[in-house]
Specification:
This protein is an all-alpha fold and about 160 residues long. It is about 70% helix and about 0% strand. It has 8 helices and no strands. The longest helix is centred in the middle third of the chain and has 27 residues. About 10% of the residues have low confidence.
């Protein structure tokens, strides 16, 4: 019983706080008028949007580039598995992707999709970066990866056709 009383007493003591003493109305108005400068009251607040924040984060160019990247990745990965099925002595040449290919198509496609999603997210952020040079180069990484996938796909079409 004494434990409950002590806990209740501590809870009540913890919620207690000092109450402000009421001020006369004239003193409150004088304090309020002194706390805000007169020059600031006449200037309206204007919010200026920086140029790099205008417009949408994504547009048709962004989505077409993302679709091209995804298509090239799918063709490259599919052709890699086709080559591995028909050529016993063939192996994946990319040491970073080889363990994914060894684990099967589900893992390879899932990791490739996640990677492409990350690349396109980075590109979307680059489009609205504060630095102009970064904004102008948002498309370089997805385009380079698309080209690399296309070259690998074309290479895979000729491999193992003995």
């Amino acid at each position: 019983m004494t434990r409950v009383v002590v806990v209740v007493a501590l809870l009540v003591a913890g919620t207690a706080h000092a109450q402000p003493t009421p001020m006369p109305l004239a003193a409150t108005e004088a304090l309020n008028s002194m706390s805000r400068p007169m020059a600031m009251a006449a200037v309206p607040a204007v919010v200026v949007r920086p140029e790099h924040r205008r417009g949408r984060r994504t547009d048709a160019k962004f989505w077409w580039l993302g679709a091209a990247l995804n298509t090239a990745m799918l063709l490259d990965t599919k052709s890699t598995f086709d080559v591995m099925a028909r050529c016993a002595r063939c192996a994946e040449g990319n040491p970073l992707v080889a363990p994914l290919i060894d684990r099967g198509p589900v893992v390879a496609y899932a990791v490739a999709e996640a990677f492409d999603l990350g690349v396109m997210t980075l590109a979307a952020r680059m489009r609205h970066a504060e630095r102009r040079s970064v904004r102008r180069l948002w498309w370089v990484v997805p385009a380079a990866l698309t080209a690399a996938h296309a070259v690998a796909y074309r290479h895979n079409l000729g491999v193992g056709r003995d």
